[in-house]
Design brief:
Number of domains: 1
Shape: elongated
Radius of gyration: 29 Å
Helix content: 25-40%
Strand content: over 45%
């Protein structure tokens, strides 16, 4: 006599198998949702941060044309991903030089100081900024790196130091395209001859990256690194006297 399907062990086994498979599928889906979505979001944030860095490198190339007198104005579009973009800060540069005065047959000291400020994008605890012809990035850990070199140059006993200061108070938040326009203001060049010793002081949120730049690219030694004031002081004594040129370029920046 055939067994009723209702009481068949095969039918029960098949239902149990389906239940186990369904449970496994639901469990796997749950793991993907719990673990996979945050990973995807982190990857997307990392991609946005990289895009912001690259756009600021393009921004620097254009603004530096204004700094060095190659263009009266520059306008660049940037894409925002939900953070904020501002003209902000109170960063400063100070330059002390020891020069030889042949008329008095002695050394004298000269000082140049100026507020720089910056254009900065804040996104997901990472700050990317254009500051004095360079691009800098600061992470939530406090670590700062240089993403694009500032335009300091030293060759043939001539040191050129830019002072690309920005003014303005515009700030915008959200997503989409924005336009950053930079207009040239007053521009001048301060020159110093027979300089034997140069100290450069930078006060900035990116001071640790500035320290590395001054050490590695200008051959300066760190004299003081102040975490409280976020200031690096570095200097160099030159075996042969050099000429120093400070390119002072004030710029007005608007964001819309």
């Amino acid at each position: 006599m055939e067994k009723s399907f209702k009481y068949s062990n095969d039918a029960v086994s098949e239902i149990v198998d389906y239940s186990i498979i369904l449970a496994i599928i639901l469990f796997a889906t749950g793991i993907i949702i719990v673990a996979g979505v945050p990973i995807l979001e982190d990857m997307q944030d990392a991609h946005h941060t990289e895009n912001i860095k690259q756009s600021f490198q393009v921004l620097a190339l254009n603004i530096n044309k204004v700094v060095f007198g190659n263009a009266p104005t520059q306008s660049v579009e940037l894409k925002m991903y939900g953070g904020s973009l501002s003209v902000t800060g109170n960063s400063q540069i100070g330059i002390t030089m020891q020069t030889w005065n042949s008329s008095s047959d002695s050394f004298s000291s000269s000082f140049y100081g100026k507020q720089m400020r910056k254009i900065e994008n804040d996104f997901q605890d990472t700050s990317t900024g254009y500051e004095n012809t360079g691009v800098w990035i600061k992470y939530s850990t406090g670590e700062a790196i240089m993403a694009s070199e500032p335009r300091f140059t030293y060759a043939n006993n001539v040191l050129v130091i830019p002072d690309g200061s920005v003014s303005g108070a515009d700030s915008i938040s959200g997503s989409g395209l924005v336009r950053v326009t930079t207009d040239a203001g007053t521009r001048s060049i301060n020159s110093y001859q027979n300089v034997s010793h140069v100290n450069i002081s930078i006060t900035s949120d990116y001071f640790k990256a500035w320290e590395k730049y001054l050490n590695e690219h200008l051959g300066m030694s760190t004299i003081e690194l102040n975490e409280t004031t976020q200031t690096v002081l570095a200097g160099k004594i030159y075996t042969e006297n050099i000429d120093v040129y400070i390119v002072k370029a004030a710029m007005d920046v608007t964001i819309d």
